[in-house]
Amino acid sequence: MYRAILPEGQIECDRYDHIENGVELYDGDDEFIAFVPYANLHALADENLYTGDSTEEERSIM
Fold this sequence. Notes:
By secondary structure, this protein is mainly β. The chain is about 5% helix and about 50% strand. It has one helix spanning about 50, and strands spanning about 1-5, 10-15, 15-20, 20-25, 30-35, 45.
C-alpha cells in the first residue's frame, strides 16, 4: 500500500504508474482512483513508513 502526499491531504492506493505528467493511482482491484500531476505531488510513500512494518534497516537523515 502507498500514500500519495498532496498539499491538501493524502490518497491511499495499492499501486501506481508513472506517466508523462504525473502518477495514476489504483486500488486493490486495479481500478483507477486518481491522477495526480507531479506539480501537486509532494511525495509518494510506502505505507510501511507510517506503520513501522518495514523489514529493511531503519535509517535516519539529519
